Every structure is written in structure tokens, then in C-alpha cells.
Amino acid sequence: MDSNLRNRLFWLFGLLLIYKIGVHIPTPGVDGQALSEFFQERASGTVFGLLNLFSGGALEQLSLLGLGIAPYISASIIMQLATVMSPKIERLQKEGEGGRRQINQFTRYLAVGIALVQGFFITASLAGLTSPVTGTPVVSDGGMGFRLMAMILLSAGAIFTMWLGEQITDKGIGNGSSLIIFTGIASSLFHGVGSLKLSLDNETLSYGQVLLLLVIMVIVIAAIVFFEQGNRRVPIQYARRMVGRKVYGGQDSHLPLKINAAGVIPAIFASTLILFPATVLSFFGPEWAAKGQQWFTPSGFGYNIVFVLGIVFFCFFYTAVSTNPNDLAENLRKFGGYVPGIRPGKHTSDYFNSIITRLTFSGAIYLSIVCVLPTILISTFNVNFHFGGTTLLILVGVALDTMSQLQSHLINQNYDSFLKEARLRGRRA
User: Fold this and answer.
1) Hey, what's the torsion of the CAs at 267, 62, 294, 364, to 10 degrees?
2) Which residues contact 264 (CB under 8 A, 6 or more apart)?
């Protein structure tokens, strides 16, 4: 292992360690025990539970990094959508490195605004809550002074987390934002393993049921790896061009189109949208609110139907925004390429559009099965285990991307050592 790769790994683990230390620094004025009891009893099946899972339990104790990387992720998604809807931002993206730097700066400013709004609403929501077990107030003094202080601290923690993610991307290996979410989810899995062991000790689960759960989990992970790496290779051929006395082009190539081009974003959007009513109803005490919240629990049949419809919708919506068949056909024409048997221009664009539509539909079905099946199994076996499809998608996707970048560094290292050895041999000769 060369020194460059060793330094990158050192930066990666060091910055992730700093993030995990920050997760355990609480916000002043909050009763951590009462807040933890509230999350365990009331936050399951709400947006708070989802954000708490992605932050690795930081929101459960309202730590300084309680918002995690969520504001920056939301800002990045909004800027991606704005790139298609706003011609000005689209021109910035096509200007090269300078334009991308400006877009990144806009994303940071937007992330700060989102963090301020999220911090204020979260602290305002938690200010009047009490523990469902002991009745202890979560916040001893929930006045405007506490809300402003907590909002500023949470926003500062979100900005610091965003900076950590950028440093991991620049100095470490992999995408920093994705690795921070990966770390949060992976740390919460240990609690799931502990609850699974407790179920075995209490004999609420048999060893056969646990083995069946593990086998299904392995099958789901294998399916995720297969579909995330799967793509449709569209054959491309380039025409020959004469430049001076040399002939360029004429080679055969292919254009890879992913089965799941939208990634995990449709699952996150759909789950957040569905969990929003349950989050609002969780703050009301009457019986009608509790019954209404049950309609939006992940174990309900209606929830899963709406969840699948939301995944399908966001798959097509995000793919339509991020992948433009007209741009693919135009870029192919500019570089002298064409699809064999398809006329350039509108015919090529329609051909790409038909392929992308079929792939998106297949990807939506795959995402729906992966996200709904584990939830049904958890409700069937009555297991409090973090085996959600969305979390598995994030874990496997980030692991594949990080391993791909690590492999690229190793290949470059071997290539550089090969060239260095060739130079030494040439000098000796």
C-alpha cells in the first residue's frame, strides 16, 4: 500500500471518528433520558424516526450533530432539480469546473437555510413534549431563548457535518456525505443485533426464524448488488473522420444505461412523504389521533400500497429530471456516433426514451420489492430489527461505490509502479 492511499484511509477513519464523537455531545437544556423514551415509544414510524436512523441516533439525544448531513442532501437534491428547471443554473453546470463551483456554493447556502428551518421546527416540536414513561418534560424551559439557542447549535452542527463530508470526499476515499449516512445507519445496526439477541433469550423468536431472516437478508443484499450494478449496454458506432493524413473513429463502443438510475432517492422521498402525517398526528393525544397514526404505520396494508405508488412515481420523476434522451442523442451526434440501425436525431432520442422507460419501470418494481418485503417480514415475525429496505439500499450502494474507488486507487498504484519499473529498465538498457 502506497503512502497516498494510506493517508487517504487515515483521513477517512479519522474524520468519521470525529463525527461519531460529535454525535454524543448533547444540546444544553434537554433531558436526554426523557427524549430517548419519547423516541422509543412515539417516534417509530415517523419522520423523526427516519432522521434519527440516518443520523445514527444523534437526533434521539438531540446532540449538536442531530441534523446530520440531511440538510445538505436535501439542498443537493433541490439543486439537481433546479438544474433542469432553471436555464441559468443549467448554463452554469455546462460551464465546466467554475460553474460547478458556483453551484456547490449555492448548495451550501441553501443547506444552511434548510438547517435553520429544520432546527427551529424540531426544537419547537420537542419543547412541549414529555416522556410517555415517566412524564418528565423533554425540555425544562422551552421558551424562545432555548429555541433560538438550539436552532443555532443544530445549524452549526449541520454546517460542521457538511464540512466533514467535503473533507472526506477531498482527502479520503468515497463520497463523504454518503459515508456519513452509512456510518450512522451501520452504528444503529448494532442495536438491532442486540434486540434480536434479546428476542432469542426471551424465546419470542426461535433459532429457525432467525436463520430464515438472515437467509432472506442475504438474498435481498445479493439482489441489490445485482440490480445496482446491472445496466443495459446500447451499442454505439463512431464514423471515421479524416484529420490531416490520419483517420480517427470507426470503433465500436456502447452506452451503459443503469436499471436503477434514480438510486435510493425515490424510496427516501416516498417514505418521508408518507411518514409526514404520522409525524403530525404523533403530537396529538386524543384517541382519534392514535387511530389515524396507525393507518400510516409501515406494517399496514394501506401504507405499503401508497409506498409502492410513491416509489414508482418518484422513480419516473427523478429519472426524467436527471436523464434527458434528447441530450444523449445530441451529444452522440456531436461526437460522430450513432446507434446501428437507428437514424440520428429524433429517432435516436425516441429510441433512448423507450429504453429508459422500460429500465425505469423495472427499477421501480425492484425498489418496491426491496423496500416493502423486509417491512412485511418484520411485522410478520414481530422483530424490532433494523432491516428496512431503504437502509439496506444505502448500505450496499455506498459500500459498492467506496470499494470501486478503492479499487481504482489500487489499479493506479500498480500502474504507476509498473511505469516506474519500466523507466528503470530502460535506463539500464
Assistant:
1) 0
2) 390, 393, 394, 397
Per-residue pLDDT of the chain in tens (429 residues, 90 and over written 9)? 567 778 888 888 898 899 888 888 888 877 777 777 777 766 665 666 667 766 766 777 778 888 888 888 888 888 877 877 777 887 887 777 788 888 888 889 999 998 888 888 878 777 777 776 677 777 777 678 878 888 898 899 889 999 998 898 888 888 888 888 888 888 777 776 777 777 777 777 777 777 877 787 888 888 888 888 888 888 888 776 655 566 555 567 788 888 888 887 788 777 777 766 666 665 555 566 556 656 666 666 667 788 888 888 888 888 887 788 888 888 888 877 878 888 888 888 888 889 999 999 998 998 888 888 766 766 666 655 555 677 788 888 888 888 888 887 777 766 655 555 555 454 554
Which helix (H) or strand (E) segment is 161 a member of? helix 144-171
Q: Which fold has domain 206-382?
A: Preprotein translocase SecY subunit (1.10.3370)
The DSSP symbol for 129 reads: -
Residue 238 parent element (H or E)? strand 231-238
Fold of 1-189: Preprotein translocase SecY subunit (1.10.3370)
CATH topology identical between 1-189 and 206-382: yes
Number of Cβ atoms within 10 Å of the Cβ of 140: 11
- Classify the C-alpha dihedral 387-390-392-398 as positive or negative: negative
Q: For residue 264, give the nearest of 315, 223, 339, 189 by alpha carbon.
A: 315
Contact in structure between 314 and 269 (CB atoms under 8 Å): yes
CA separation, residue 360 to residues 314, 333, 352, 364 (Å):
10, 24, 12, 6
In the block, cell 452554469 appears at 92
Please name the residue ranges forming H helices in 232-342: 265-281, 287-294, 301-322, 325-334
Q: Among residues 130, 123, 141, which one has the least CA distance to residue 37?
A: 130
373 close to 213: Cβ distance less than 8 angstroms? no
Domain ranges of the chain: 1-189, 206-382
Name the grid cell of 412.
493506479
